[in-house]
Amino acid sequence: NPHLEKMKEDILYHFALGTGTHDFPAMFGDVKFVCVGGSPSRMKAFIAYIAEELGLGSPGCDYPNICAGTDRYAMYKVGPVLSVSHGMGIPSISIMLHELIKLLYHAKCSNITIIRIGTSGGIGLEPGSVVITRQSVDATFKPQFEQVILGKTVIRSTNLDEQLAKELMQCSKEINQFNTVIGNTMCTLDFYEGQGRLDGAICLYNEEEKLQYLKEAYDAGVRNIEMESSVFAAMCNLSGVKGK
User: What is one process in the GO biological process aspect for this record (predicted)?
Assistant: First the structure.
């Protein structure tokens, strides 16, 4: 964004951080991996796990929330790993990603990998399986993210880094603890009707129609359903960040 260069100070409002009040290179300059997920408590548990795996933390060690000045998102850091919550749905993760990408830019980070982790609804898979996303598709199975900007519809690609998918699959084979597949992830705008559930407040289709839709999704290569991957993929692509 060329407009950022004209700003005296960039305030990352929803992180309660700003270039005028915080030394971004000192705080985040060594970051190489960013893992994002919906829940603040999960992302705190994740950073504690990573700290132990990397030998950078001690048992019972507490990790402060870097974004404690706001209740919108939570952020934790250990070594080169940043763990950030993004809430539920495209609007919430979009806001977070705008500020996260700017944070990494102001911190002068390089060779960043961002990975979204979280629960999702599987299609044709055993519960507990891991899906590594090849590309995010919309509810009509198209690999695109559609957004209205200044009154005009803009369509952006949602393909994700293919080499990173292969590397993650190889890691899974070496760990050999859970079933892992590479497939398409369907991103919906809603948890209930958008995902074909029968238990929402409103439902104007029957179970047979639901199952037919899920079969069509499976045939299109979809292996799981969630609500954030499309804008995640689009923004990683546009900013030149390797994402999965």
Answer: uridine catabolic process
Residue 42 marked ligand-binding: no
Q: Do domains 1-118 and 119-243 have the same CATH topology?
A: yes
CATH no., domain 1-118: 3.40.50.1580
134 labelled binding-site residue = no
For the beta carbon of residue 176, count every other beta carbon within 10 angstroms: 7
Consult the annotation and say whether 119 binds a ligand: yes
Average pLDDT over residues 113-133: 95
pTM: 0.93
Report which of 50, 26, 41, 40 is spatially closest to residue 74, judged by C-alpha positions: 40
The CATH superfamily label for domain 119-243 reads Nucleoside phosphorylase domain (3.40.50.1580)
Residue 72 among known ligand-binding residues: yes
DSSP 3-state of 50: helix
What ranges do the domains of the chain cover? 1-118, 119-243
